[in-house]
Design goal:
- The protein is of the alpha+beta class.
- The chain has 3 domains: 3-93, Rossmann fold; 127-182, ATP-grasp fold, A domain (Dna Ligase, domain 1); 194-425, ATP-grasp fold, B domain (D-amino Acid Aminotransferase, Chain A, domain 1), CATH 3.30.470.
- Helix content is 32%, strand content 27%.
- It contains 14 helices and 24 strands.
- It has helices at residues 12-22, 53-62, 73-77, 80-86, 96-103, 105-115, 128-138, 161-173, 241-261, 294-301, 306-314, 353-357, 393-404, 420-425; strands spanning 3-9, 27-34, 44-45, 67-70, 91-92, 122-125, 142-146, 155-158, 184-188, 194-196, 199-202, 206-208, 213-214, 217-219, 223-226, 231-234, 267-277, 280-287, 329-337, 362-366, 369-372, 375-378, 382-390, 412-413.
- Strand 21 (369-372) and strand 22 form a beta hairpin.
- The longest helix has 21 residues, at 241-261.
- The chain is globular.
- The structure holds adenosine monophosphate and glycine.
């Protein structure tokens, strides 16, 4: 029987999920709320914001949706999974309590400390003066983080003490992140390559995804402001099976076990952001969902049927199915709007997506786009994700950059060095 699915979200991640779900022989109707200019080609966009949790549940009931898949963190933090489950609706993602591992950095750090999961040394503060005293005692470099969800903008990596003091003023005194900054986490600065890990769990069993890596800084050579993520590669050629096994043993497994022991068994995607530091593997943060733009690379590599995987997870039958991956490598390079992650203009027509999709190995995912009067236009800071697969990472990157040259809109910006560090390490 055909399975009708609702995807919640509007980014490149959700376009990639829709693209992969469309390939399932069992997929029925596909709805994306609110979706973007690309998802409309794969299903029906529904004009309900991802945070309108009750309205989404009403829609799922009205349309007798068989499975809802949540992309972004905000609805998870608002308890969308609890709301749907209370109404007897099947939904993929963690409960509000389990999602705290992402939505509260204070919770997540205290959890890691108690569960013995390796992470940077830290303090949690609600008092501005005490926080100032702590950074002055510890000195720079030091990292200051708003505890709550702040669209990836609440983290200040401070090279000097005045920078750290200014960060505390922003978050605690000027309250620029409002309630998200009510608690502040101050932590030890770590150095080393960052790795994204994803594992899927049904609350009892879990399965690991291959490693991946995001590029967060806007500028080439990892310079400039942090973004939500503007380019990924997967798997990392320099991560050996032994390192993956260590990550699983020291981070993934104890996290699922400890969360279950806390009474908040985690079902969904657990995405720890790690640093392979000189002091060993350290967790920088936990996310309770697919990474964007990591998801786009993963969907290109996944051999198994995504619908089978997500349904097995929701039904607590993950142990019964196998999760298989294609050989080779994937990359996903984000094309941004000039100015992102600060202010940028919207509404520029985009051309060349069809031509780019003709390049062997390439699939263009849309993120910040809308479709108006037959024209795809820019509508966000991260506009498109140009993904490619290849037998080697070098080949995948070459194809993606070839495709990018065919895409045009005013203010197109992207990094030309996605994956280069990994190429020189492998
Ligand atoms: P987070 O949202 O906590 O992952 O932080 C965003 C980014 O800030 C990370 O991807 C790192 O690049 C950087 N970062 C976070 N914590 C640290 C740390 N303790 N030391 C150095 N850089 C960090
Ligand atoms: N890859 C960054 C994020 O999804 O948070």
């Amino acid at each position: 029987m055909a399975t009708d699915v609702l995807i919640v979200g509007s980014g490149g991640r959700e376009h990639a999920l829709a693209w992969k779900l469309r390939q399932s022989p069992r997929i029925g109707k596909l709805y994306i709320a609110p979706g973007n200019g690309g998802t409309r080609e794969l299903g029906e966009n529904v004009p309900i914001a991802a945070t309108m949790v009750e309205k989404l549940a009403d829609f799922a009931q009205l349309k007798s949706i068989d499975l809802t898949v949540v992309g972004p963190e905000d609805p998870l933090a608002l308890g969308i999974v609890d709301v749907f489950q209370k109404r007897g609706l099947r939904i993929f993602g963690p409960s509000q309590a389990a999602a705290q591992i992402e939505s509260s950095k204070a919770f997540s750090k205290q959890f890691m400390q108690e569960a013995g999961i390796p992470t940077a040394e830290f303090g949690v503060f609600t008092d501005y003066k005490k926080a100032l005293k702590y950074v002055r005692e510890k000195g720079a470099p030091i990292v200051v983080k708003a505890s709550g969800l702040a669209l990836g903008k609440g983290v200040y990596v401070c090279g000097t003490l005045p920078e750290a003091e200014a960060a505390l003023k922003d978050i605690m005194y000027d309250q620029i992140f409002k309630d998200a900054g009510a608690q502040v986490v101050i932590e030890e600065f770590l150095d080393g390559p960052e790795v994204s890990i994803h594992a899927i769990s049904d609350g009892k069993d879990y399965k690991m995804f291959p490693s991946s890596q995001d590029h967060k800084a806007i500028g080439e050579g990892d310079t400039g402001k942090n973004t939500g993520g503007i380019g990924t590669i997967a798997p990392l050629p320099w991560i050996t099976p032994a390192v993956m096994a260590e990550i699983e043993e020291k981070v993934v497994k104890p996290t699922f076990v400890a969360l279950a022991a806390y009474g908040v068994a985690f079902s969904g995607i657990l995405y720890p952001g790690l640093m392979i530091s000189s002091k060993g593997i350290k967790v920088l943060e936990f996310n309770s969902r697919f990474g964007g733009p990591e998801c786009e690379s993963y969907m290109r590599l996944m051999k198994s049927d995504l619908l089978d995987l997500l349904e097995a997870c929701v039904d607590g039958k993950l142990a019964k199915i196998s999760l298989e991956w294609n050989p080779g490598y994937a990359c996903n390079i984000v094309l941004c709007a000039q100015g992102y992650p600060d202010e940028y203009e919207k509404g520029f027509p985009i051309t060349g997506i069809e031509d780019a999709n003709q390049i062997p190995g390439v699939v263009v995912f849309q993120a910040g786009t809308t479709y108006v009067d037959g024209i795809v236009k820019t509508s966000g800071g991260r506009v498109l994700g140009v993904s490619a697969v290849g037998d080697t990472l070098k080949e995948a990157l070459k194809q993606a950059y070839k495709a990018i040259d065919l895409i045009h809109y005013e203010g197109k910006y992207f990094r030309r060095d996605i994956g280069t560090k990994s190429l020189s390490r492998s």
